[in-house]
Amino acid sequence: MKRPYLTTLAAAVFLSTALIGPDARAYPEKPITVIAQQPPGSGSDAMTRIWAECVAQKVAQPLVVQNKPGANGILAINNLKGQPADGYTVMSIGMSQMTITPYVYKNMPYDPAKDFSGVTVFGATPMILTASADSGIKNLDDLAAHAKAAAGGVNFGSPGKGSPAHLLTTALVSKIKAPGTHVPFVGEGAGVTALIGNQIQIMTLVSGTALPQVKAGKLVPIALFASQRSPAFPDVPAITELLDAQDLARPAWIGVVAKKGTPIAAIRSLNDATRQCLNDQGYTKRLQAMNVEPLATTGDDLEARAQADVRVWRPLIDALGLASEN
């Protein structure tokens, strides 16, 4: 005759054993792939690798960065969407992919709100308009004069269609009534090479990318897309000093997202590790050397920040007529 309490005990043991399955194991149990949406050598790639190296130490598993550049992040996003939502593939993502790129296409290639779960924003940095040293452009008046004199206007580069650099520069040349032609590149690095060679005359860059080239005399800083000057560029005016353009005072930011449906435990683990990195002096100094402010936000903060930026960018996209069919 079976005793009731033994039957109950056996059921409890079976239930607890069933719960200790793959979903209940400690995360992470194996290496994590981090998709980077810009090519090696770009500012975004460098920031991603700094973050990945630190977080790997905190979670005691390798974070392997894989570069998937192209189409201003769309190739990388499609790669993420094709992976399991298990927390073992995440993506570093910029303000551009979260708040601009989907909206410069009439048929949205992806929907950030539906396709991603936010993990963290881990850095923010001002952007700066620069000119080739050989262009002779040293300020906005020079830029306007050059654009009006050159056939086809000024050639300005960006890391890709729908990037903050594309939108900010387009809005700026529109405000100063300077004709211009957008020349997209695959990542910042290729654009910087063309800019130094004066194949294009101006380009908006992440300030950490611009800083060494400005110091070397290869690029001329024109304006900082911020509401106040930066200690890294004390002599460069903020855009709000030059124009009535508070809408253009938008810092770039970079964060991490996972595929929608990723377990919350995985997201929290990566978020907690990012917070621990703020106490790592080696990590913070490396970001600060790129003129990046180290951050560690919640996933909800990332999504709220993105929505706040969308409310600024979408009217600009519509006003400038930047949306295209493909």
From TrEMBL:
A Pfam cross-reference name: TctC
InterPro entries: BUG, Bug_dom1
Superkingdom per UniProt: Bacteria
Signal peptide annotation: 1-26
Record key words, sorted: Signal
Keyword Ubl conjugation recorded: no
Family according to the record: Belongs to the UPF0065 (bug) family.
Protein name: Tripartite tricarboxylate transporter substrate binding protein
Species: Parapusillimonas granuli
Biological classification of the source: Bacteria, Pseudomonadati, Pseudomonadota, Betaproteobacteria, Burkholderiales
